[in-house]
Design goal:
Layout lengths: L7 E3 L5 H9 L7 E9 L1 H14 L5 H15 L5 E4 L2 E5 L2 E8 L8 E8 L5 H17 L5 H10 L3 H16 L5 H4 L8 E5 L20 E5 L3 E6 L5 E14 L5 H16 L17
Parallel strand pairs: 5-7, 7-8
Antiparallel strand pairs: 1-4, 2-10, 3-4, 5-6, 8-10, 9-10
Helix pairs in contact: 3-4, 3-8
């Protein structure tokens, strides 16, 4: 049964070490590795400001980060691997998810967004897609379809919920989860992003979840200025942003993760490549 998942293709040529790792560390939360990186986005901020002014775009740092993450994953496919039922799968699509606050208020409800990224997309198209979906949720009184489903399920008695999620665990183990329950669920995305900079917060560590198949969690802090020493030895005030990445270390090794990070870093520091399709290789030496 596990050969026929809707969202992934089973990876059969797994080496001996990785084949036993899911038995040693069966839970995703047991295999977390986390790191915080700072990115210099000075040129990106200036480039986006000029385009927004001259071309009427609505580009934001978050849109650029989503684009850089998607393009990195496209060219580093091991980042799009997940483990379910102690079996490795290559995810069929690149999917990004994040939380949208309907209003900036303590009591305001949150909605979960889920975006599928296509190979021909670039910063402009991803930005328009994010803006469109966010506007749609904030104008809606009851959120999206996933919000409605969660409200329905959440209203069930506790003993029903325990049985319901017990059945889901069995279905997930055998790769039989119905599309209606996973198609727009961030727990089933390639990467879940938390844009905490939008509420003037930092980039804390955020755990993965044992539910679903998401192998990467990224928190994004506030855009701020810092004095940085440049390559020529001079000091300059630069626009920087911190991000904390939490990954399932079972899907690849640290060497692979480190090389992958160079792609995202290059894109955020060289905005001229942002409007290329994500399928185009990034000119960075790995």
């Amino acid at each position: 049964m596990r050969n026929k998942r809707r969202d992934g293709v089973r990876i059969k040529d797994v080496d001996g070490f990785h084949s036993i790792v899911p038995y040693i560390m069966p839970k995703r939360t047991e295999a977390e590795v986390s790191m915080t990186e700072q990115f210099d986005v000075t040129d990106l901020v200036a480039w986006m400001a000029e385009r927004n002014k001259n071309e009427g775009t609505q580009l934001k740092i978050f849109h650029a980060i989503c684009t850089a993450v998607a393009r990195t994953i496209y060219h580093r496919p091991k980042l799009n691997i997940f483990i379910s039922g102690r079996t490795y799968y290559q995810r069929k699509d690149i999917t990004l998810s994040f939380v949208v606050k309907r209003q900036f208020d303590d009591e305001a409800e949150e909605s979960l967004m889920f975006l599928k990224v296509e190979p021909d997309m670039n910063l402009d198209s991803i930005s328009k897609m994010i803006i469109g979906d966010v506007d749609k949720v904030r104008k809606s009184s009851d959120g999206n379809d996933l919000d409605k489903l969660m409200k329905l399920v959440g209203s069930m008695p506790r003993f029903v919920l325990e049985g319901f999620f017990g059945v889901l665990k069995v279905l997930e183990y055998h790769g039989m989860m119905p599309a209606a329950l996973t198609a727009d669920d961030p727990n089933y995305s390639t990467v879940l992003l938390a844009n905490l900079g939008s509420i003037k917060a930092g980039a804390p560590y955020h755990h993965l979840s044992n539910y679903g198949t998401c192998s990467i969690m990224i928190t994004i802090g506030t855009l701020h200025k810092e004095m940085k020493q440049m390559y020529d030895g001079t000091w300059q005030e630069r626009d920087v942003i911190d991000m904390t990445l939490t990954l399932d270390e079972r899907i690849a090794d640290g060497f692979y993760f480190a090389k992958s990070l160079r792609i995202a870093k290059y894109m955020l520091e060289h905005p001229d490549v942002m409007n290329e399709p994500i399928s185009k290789p990034v000119p960075v030496e790995l």
